[in-house]
Amino acid sequence: MDTLDAIRALVAKFDQNKESYLRSTYNEAQVRTEFIDPLFEALGWDVANRQGFAEAYKEVIHEDAVKIGSATKAPDYSFRIGGRRIFFVEPKKPSVDIHDDPSSAFQLRRYAWSAKLPLSVLTDFQEFAVCDCRVKPAESVRLDRRRDQAG
Fold first, then answer.
1. Are 112 and 131 in contact (CB under 8 A)?
2. What is the pTM of this model?
3. What is the span of the domain harbouring residue 143?
4. Environment class of 129 (CB within 10 Å of its CB; exposed 0-12, middle 13-18, buried 19+)
5. C-alpha angle with apex 139: 135 to 141, nearest 5 degrees?
6. What's the number of domains the chain is made of?
7. Angle at the Cα of 63 (from 82 to 60), degrees rounded to 5?
8. Which one, out of 2, 23, 39, 104, has a CA that is 20 to 30 A from the CA of 94?
9. Worst-scoring range by mean pLDDT, 45-49, 86-90, 101-105, 107-111?
Protein backbone atom coordinates (compact mmCIF):
# COMPACT_ATOMS: atom_id res chain seq x y z
CA MET A 1 0.00 0.00 0.00
CA ASP A 2 1.42 3.38 -0.93
CA THR A 3 1.50 6.44 1.34
CA LEU A 4 -1.68 8.05 0.06
CA ASP A 5 -3.66 4.79 0.22
CA ALA A 6 -2.47 4.15 3.78
CA ILE A 7 -3.54 7.64 4.88
CA ARG A 8 -6.88 7.32 3.10
CA ALA A 9 -7.47 4.01 4.90
CA LEU A 10 -6.78 5.64 8.29
CA VAL A 11 -9.14 8.53 7.51
CA ALA A 12 -11.85 6.12 6.34
CA LYS A 13 -11.46 4.04 9.50
CA PHE A 14 -11.77 7.17 11.63
CA ASP A 15 -14.81 8.41 9.70
CA GLN A 16 -16.57 5.03 9.92
CA ASN A 17 -16.22 4.90 13.70
CA LYS A 18 -16.08 8.62 14.47
CA GLU A 19 -18.90 8.54 17.00
CA SER A 20 -17.04 6.07 19.22
CA TYR A 21 -13.70 7.85 18.80
CA LEU A 22 -15.24 11.14 19.94
CA ARG A 23 -16.41 9.65 23.24
CA SER A 24 -14.42 10.75 26.27
CA THR A 25 -13.66 7.09 27.05
CA TYR A 26 -11.54 6.78 23.89
CA ASN A 27 -8.19 7.87 25.24
CA GLU A 28 -4.96 9.40 23.99
CA ALA A 29 -3.05 6.11 24.09
CA GLN A 30 -5.64 4.57 21.78
CA VAL A 31 -5.48 7.40 19.23
CA ARG A 32 -1.69 7.18 19.28
CA THR A 33 -1.67 3.42 18.64
CA GLU A 34 -4.51 3.28 16.11
CA PHE A 35 -3.94 6.49 14.16
CA ILE A 36 -0.91 8.66 14.97
CA ASP A 37 1.72 5.89 14.86
CA PRO A 38 0.39 4.42 11.58
CA LEU A 39 0.08 7.89 10.03
CA PHE A 40 3.70 8.79 10.66
CA GLU A 41 4.83 5.29 9.65
CA ALA A 42 2.98 5.82 6.34
CA LEU A 43 4.81 9.14 5.96
CA GLY A 44 8.12 7.29 6.25
CA TRP A 45 9.06 7.82 9.89
CA ASP A 46 10.39 4.79 11.81
CA VAL A 47 8.05 5.28 14.77
CA ALA A 48 8.67 1.80 16.22
CA ASN A 49 12.45 1.82 15.55
CA ARG A 50 12.20 -1.22 13.27
CA GLN A 51 15.69 -0.37 12.00
CA GLY A 52 17.05 -1.06 15.48
CA PHE A 53 18.96 2.18 15.89
CA ALA A 54 20.64 2.98 19.19
CA GLU A 55 18.77 5.49 21.37
CA ALA A 56 20.89 8.41 20.16
CA TYR A 57 19.92 7.79 16.52
CA LYS A 58 16.26 6.77 16.68
CA GLU A 59 14.05 8.77 14.33
CA VAL A 60 11.23 9.00 16.86
CA ILE A 61 11.58 9.19 20.61
CA HIS A 62 8.48 8.48 22.66
CA GLU A 63 8.17 10.48 25.88
CA ASP A 64 11.35 12.47 25.22
CA ALA A 65 12.81 14.52 28.10
CA VAL A 66 12.70 18.32 27.90
CA LYS A 67 13.90 20.62 30.67
CA ILE A 68 11.38 23.37 31.44
CA GLY A 69 12.64 25.52 34.26
CA SER A 70 13.59 23.12 37.04
CA ALA A 71 11.18 20.42 35.84
CA THR A 72 11.62 17.73 33.21
CA LYS A 73 8.62 17.21 30.93
CA ALA A 74 7.90 14.54 28.32
CA PRO A 75 6.53 15.43 24.87
CA ASP A 76 4.74 12.38 23.45
CA TYR A 77 6.80 12.28 20.25
CA SER A 78 10.10 13.83 19.32
CA PHE A 79 10.92 13.50 15.61
CA ARG A 80 14.62 13.55 14.81
CA ILE A 81 17.02 13.39 11.91
CA GLY A 82 20.56 12.24 12.61
CA GLY A 83 19.88 12.38 16.36
CA ARG A 84 18.83 16.08 16.20
CA ARG A 85 15.31 17.09 17.21
CA ILE A 86 13.27 18.55 14.37
CA PHE A 87 9.76 18.83 15.87
CA PHE A 88 7.45 17.46 18.55
CA VAL A 89 4.01 15.95 18.08
CA GLU A 90 1.58 16.19 20.97
CA PRO A 91 -1.58 14.13 20.44
CA LYS A 92 -4.83 14.59 22.33
CA LYS A 93 -7.83 12.32 22.41
CA PRO A 94 -10.39 13.21 19.73
CA SER A 95 -12.96 14.38 22.29
CA VAL A 96 -10.64 17.30 23.16
CA ASP A 97 -11.22 20.31 20.91
CA ILE A 98 -7.62 21.34 20.38
CA HIS A 99 -8.65 24.81 19.18
CA ASP A 100 -10.79 25.65 22.19
CA ASP A 101 -8.44 24.20 24.81
CA PRO A 102 -5.60 26.70 25.35
CA SER A 103 -3.81 24.32 27.73
CA SER A 104 -3.08 21.88 24.88
CA ALA A 105 -1.47 24.54 22.69
CA PHE A 106 0.42 26.00 25.66
CA GLN A 107 1.78 22.58 26.61
CA LEU A 108 3.11 21.92 23.10
CA ARG A 109 4.48 25.43 22.61
CA ARG A 110 6.21 25.33 25.99
CA TYR A 111 7.91 22.04 25.08
CA ALA A 112 9.07 23.34 21.70
CA TRP A 113 10.08 26.80 22.99
CA SER A 114 12.20 25.20 25.72
CA ALA A 115 13.83 22.85 23.19
CA LYS A 116 14.39 25.74 20.75
CA LEU A 117 12.28 24.13 18.02
CA PRO A 118 10.61 26.56 15.60
CA LEU A 119 7.48 24.45 15.06
CA SER A 120 5.62 21.46 16.40
CA VAL A 121 2.34 19.66 15.79
CA LEU A 122 -0.77 19.36 17.95
CA THR A 123 -3.31 16.76 16.81
CA ASP A 124 -6.33 14.71 17.78
CA PHE A 125 -6.09 12.99 14.37
CA GLN A 126 -9.22 14.68 13.05
CA GLU A 127 -7.32 17.98 13.04
CA PHE A 128 -3.65 18.88 12.82
CA ALA A 129 -2.29 22.22 13.97
CA VAL A 130 1.25 23.12 13.01
CA CYS A 131 2.25 25.62 15.68
CA ASP A 132 4.77 28.41 15.38
CA CYS A 133 6.89 27.95 18.50
CA ARG A 134 9.41 30.75 17.98
CA VAL A 135 7.60 33.08 20.40
CA LYS A 136 7.55 32.47 24.15
CA PRO A 137 4.22 30.76 24.88
CA ALA A 138 1.43 32.39 26.86
CA GLU A 139 -0.94 30.17 28.82
CA SER A 140 -4.15 31.85 27.67
CA VAL A 141 -3.44 31.95 23.93
CA ARG A 142 -5.56 29.65 21.80
CA LEU A 143 -4.68 28.31 18.39
CA ASP A 144 -5.40 30.56 15.46
CA ARG A 145 -6.92 28.36 12.75
CA ARG A 146 -5.67 30.67 10.02
CA ARG A 147 -2.10 30.84 11.27
CA ASP A 148 -1.39 27.56 13.09
CA GLN A 149 -3.41 24.95 11.27
CA ALA A 150 -2.06 23.01 8.36
CA GLY A 151 -4.54 20.44 7.12
1. yes
2. 0.88
3. 3-148
4. buried
5. 70
6. 1
7. 30
8. 2
9. 101-105
Is the Cβ–Cβ distance between 65 and 95 less than 8 Å? Answer: no
Amino acid code (one letter) for 30 = Q
pLDDT digits 0-9 by tens, 55-74: 999 999 999 999 988 889 99
Distance CA 55, CA 58 (A): 5
Neighbours of 148 (CB within 10 A): 21
DSSP secondary structure of the chain: --HHHHHHHHHHHHHHTHHHHTSTTS-HHHHIIIIIHHHHHHTT--TT-TT---GGG-SEEET--EEETTEEE--SEEEEETTEEEEEEEE--TTS-TTT-HHHHHHHHHHHHHTT-SEEEEE-SS-EEEEE-SS---TTPPP-HHHHB--
